[in-house]
């Protein structure tokens, strides 16, 4: 008998990186790696559930920047080139490791995976992975939702409410253009929320969003069912709280499954391990060493010593961990159902890129979990948030609290001494965009195009990825450059518009480079 429900929500997002002026651009590899290790494996497993008739329910948020890159012919062609080169390297690796049995087995695995990825991407889907997601949605087991704008940090936009409206509605309109129906839910970037954001969601027809647990636990009045039922905000939009226990088991590299010593070691890659002359043809255009995706070792332990990766053992560990996760959800649901007197819902949101990219075995673990849930237990069912609301429309009303899923649950990761310099510039640009939209309410032709491009540049500058990267101290120079590029483009457009000195050729160039939201309407800022 079903005692409760589990809602798995995957958030797929990457910053918008598209550089047509460069033949190769290192940061575009972020997209190609995620395609190979995360998005294509997830599609393959999800299509397997449909093919095999496995009952399933998964919610997948796909951000507008990721949708734009998936839909972009330039990046599609470059990904095909990336796959061809990776397969060429895999053939060389088969020759190199032929007398090293343990490594040859891993090289064979990579070769097979890459061949299957190219077959799905180029042959089966003709480069159109968005079509695969649409068909999975139409099959009924995958609930697709969207994410605001270019992943802008919405609580930092409350001084210019039109920016929040533009972030939300540009995303919902793009989603409907691509998938033929409005999204039922929205992933708030970084799960960052302050009271009032739900009003913009309601305006756009959004039914629900995901919150960090304390965003609901600290709601007023206090929710009777804690983090195990959604609440309705005062305007009727539902907030689903993240469950801490299921999150910790998957997210934590120390306490959770991804840190198992038999899983693949992410940081040992032949791009750094092998002779430079051998690997050079597969490195960046600058000749700098980089990740290739060919990793032959398992985590092994906390030290530098790493033993050979054994795919068969890792696969069995993924099955064991899926069984453990299922067991824990059974016990959790049974306990909560007794305490609550009603079926609880465990909301388990994760970054999609954790599955496959960071945790190589993650997609396989998810496949085992879905199949085991369908056939090996009866305590809980998988469900999407929208279907849960359909089945249980009566929920408590309360005002959710400010929160994010960042460190300590606050906003400090996105505003601190590493990145606070960006916000005066972003706020000024947002004010200017609102001014432009109100000053030119019916612009057409070149002027309308300039205003639409200004909106694109602002949305791209507002991405939460840039301050996140600055705090993480990873690709800091790149993040700083991206903000400066988009703000400079916006400012130049602003002055050209108010001075009536528009440069058609330059605006055309921008339209061909920053292609996010092809049908954006600057009037959203009015």
Automatic annotation (TrEMBL):
Ranges where the 1,4-alpha-glucan branching enzyme C-terminal domain occurs: 425-525
Binding-site positions, substrate: 242, 259, 405, 465
UniProt-recorded Gene Ontology molecular function terms: 1,4-alpha-glucan branching enzyme activity
GO biological process assignments: alpha-glucan biosynthetic process
Any GO CC annotation of this UniProt entry: extracellular region
Keywords on record: Carbohydrate metabolism
List of catalytic residues: 190, 351
InterPro entries referenced in this protein's UniProt entry, alphabetically: 57_glycoside_trans_central, BE_C, Branching_enz_MT3115-like, Glyco_hydro/deAcase_b/a-brl, Glyco_hydro_38_N_sf, Glyco_hydro_57/38_cen_sf, Glyco_hydro_57_N
Stretches assigned to the Glycoside hydrolase family 57 N-terminal domain: 7-260
Keyword Heme included in the entry's annotation: no
Family: Belongs to the glycosyl hydrolase 57 family.
Protein name (record): DUF1957 domain-containing protein
Organism placement in taxonomy: Bacteria, Pseudomonadati, Nitrospinota/Tectimicrobiota group, Nitrospinota, Nitrospinia
């Amino acid at each position: 008998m079903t005692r409760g429900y589990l809602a798995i929500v995957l958030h797929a997002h990457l910053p918008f990186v598209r550089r047509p002026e460069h033949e190769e651009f290192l940061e575009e590899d972020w997209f190609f790696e995620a395609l190979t290790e995360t998005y294509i494996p997830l599609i393959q497993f999800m299509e397997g559930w449909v093919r095999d008739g496995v009952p399933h329910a998964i919610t997948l948020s796909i951000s507008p920047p990721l949708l734009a890159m998936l839909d972009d012919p330039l990046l599609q062609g470059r990904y095909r080139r990336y796959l061809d080169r990776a397969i060429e390297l895999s053939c060389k690796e088969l020759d190199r490791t032929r007398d090293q049995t343990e490594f040859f087995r891993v090289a064979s695995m990579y070769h097979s995976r890459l061949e299957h990825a190219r077959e799905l991407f180029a042959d089966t889907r003709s480069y159109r992975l968005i079509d695969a997601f649409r068909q999975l949605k139409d099959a009924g087991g995958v609930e697709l939702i969207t994410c605001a704008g270019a992943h802008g940090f919405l609580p930092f936009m409350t001084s210019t409410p039109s920016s929040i409206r533009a972030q939300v509605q540009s995303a919902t309109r793009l989603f409907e253009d691509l998938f033929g129906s409005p999204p039922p839910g929205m992933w708030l970037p970084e799960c960052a929320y302050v009271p009032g954001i739900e009003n913009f969601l309601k305006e756009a027809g959004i039914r629900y969003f995901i919150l960090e647990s304390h965003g609901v636990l600290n709601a007023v009045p206090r929710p009777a069912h804690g983090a195990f039922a959604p609440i309705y905000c005062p305007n009727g939009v539902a907030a689903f709280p993240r469950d801490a226990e299921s999150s910790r088991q998957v997210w934590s590299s120390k306490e959770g499954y991804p840190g198992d010593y038999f899983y693949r070691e992410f940081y040992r890659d032949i791009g750094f391990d092998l002779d430079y002359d051998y690997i050079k043809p597969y490195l960046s255009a600058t000749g700098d060493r980089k990740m290739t995706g060919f990793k032959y070792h398992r985590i092994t332990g906390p030290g530098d010593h790493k033993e050979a990766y054994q795919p068969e053992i890792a696969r069995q560990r993924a099955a064991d961990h899926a069984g453990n996760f299922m067991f824990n959800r059974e016990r959790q649901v049974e306990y909560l159902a007794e305490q609550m007197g009603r079926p609880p819902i465990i909301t388990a949101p994760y970054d999609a890129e954790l599955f496959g990219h960071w945790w190589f075995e993650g997609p396989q673990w998810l496949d085992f979990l879905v199949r085991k849930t369908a056939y090996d237990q009866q305590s809980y069912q998988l469900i999407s948030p929208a279907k849960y609301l359909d089945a249980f429309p009566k929920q408590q009303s309360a005002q959710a609290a400010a929160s994010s899923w960042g460190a300590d649950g606050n906003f400090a990761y996105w505003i601190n001494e590493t990145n606070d310099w960006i916000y005066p510039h972003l706020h000024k640009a947002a004010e200017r965009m609102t001014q432009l939209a109100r000053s030119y309410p019916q612009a057409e032709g070149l002027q309308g195009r300039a205003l639409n491009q200004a909106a694109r540049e602002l949305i791209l500058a507002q991405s939460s990825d840039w301050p996140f990267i600055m705090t993480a101290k990873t690709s800091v120079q790149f993040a700083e450059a991206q903000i400066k590029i988009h703000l400079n483009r916006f400012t130049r457009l602003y002055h050209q518009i108010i001075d009536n000195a528009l440069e058609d050729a330059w605006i055309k160039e921008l339209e061909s480079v920053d292609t996010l939201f092809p049908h954006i309407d600057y009037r959203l800022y009015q």
